[in-house]
Amino acid sequence: MTQSVTLDDLDRRLVHALQVDGRAPFSRIAAVLGVPERTLARRYHRLRSALAVRVAGLVDSARIGMADWFVTLDCAPDATETLTSLLAQRDDTSWIAPLAGGGRLVCMVRTPAPGRPAGGPDGGRSFFEQLARTPGVRDVQAGCVLRAVAGVGGWSGRTSALDAAEQERLRTAAEPARSAVGGDGGAGSPSTGDADGAASSPGPGPDPGPTAWTEADARLAGELARDGRADIRHLAEVTGWSASTTRRRISRLRSTGVLHFEVDVDPAHFGAPLEALLWLDVAPGTLPTVTEALAGHAPVAFAAATTGRAAVFAMLQCRDAGALYEYLSRDLGALPGIRGAETALVQRRTKRAGTLLLPERHSSPPKRAS
Hints:
Elements: H1 9-20, H2 26-33, H3 37-49, E1 53-59, E2 66-75, H4 80-88, E3 93-98, E4 104-112, H5 124-132, E5 137-150, H6 164-181, H7 215-226, H8 232-239, H9 243-255, E6 259-265, E7 274-282, H10 287-294, E8 300-306, E9 312-318, H11 321-332, E10 338-345
Antiparallel strand pairs: 1-6, 2-4, 2-5, 3-4, 5-8, 7-9, 7-10, 8-9
Helix pairs in contact: 2-3, 2-6, 7-8, 8-9
């Protein structure tokens, strides 16, 4: 992310609006925010070009037979950078973060769900076996995500710029547009603000079933991971469907919970530059109480119940070290059933949600870990 970019109040309102609906046309957002459509389009494309803000399309792993894992790697200090770069280039990784102090990094990995075929040399158990054999890796600890318990729908720290009425107007306005075109209403482009091409002719096209996950869906998801607001015509070319079929498919995947959109933006732009990871050992009987409380804690950007030695894994965003101490000692310390906690500070984020994007001046590291 680019640290030289500063977000003003309108930028933050735009970010919040995109978290409500990542593919909302700029015309709809402009009507709610009370600013010209072209102003919003220019704002977004300027921020996205600077890698400061973007919308990423994300798939619910469990709904397509996959599983997410939070993986902690203990590695030789001189191997950390190479391993980080190698993992960042994989399509099945996200949220990659070397930890402060050196020698450790954490990432999220997607594999076929336990009990399903690996589906290739990089899938399932073979991925972890391959990772353990990678030069410089000393230890691998993996926890499978059982359920996301906090931060679903976006971190509250960046979703406070719009009031409840404005958010409801964004959601309500989306329904007629979706009904009229059979799709999601469109993602804005600089010129028209309607990348889904509502004026395009319907045209016939194959329409996959509501739950089947096809190769075309995977191509669609890959493009949306790179750019959640990609033009509908481009997405149609990638999938081989007509524009109207592509629009309907996006709408169906969203309505069934398979696909959602997340605004990828550095929390430092919202006054929370310090990121920490938290592993909690929680008594099983108090797990519902603890996770429900975490969902209401402002510093918790994301949390999930997982397998492994820690029952809960969480990502925290704080103003500084003092604020982190206050949260751990006061809010977290007041929860019942927490038998132990481990924290680690994030040195930096190499990859967040969606596909890795690099400024043009950066060279691309190798594609795969070996």
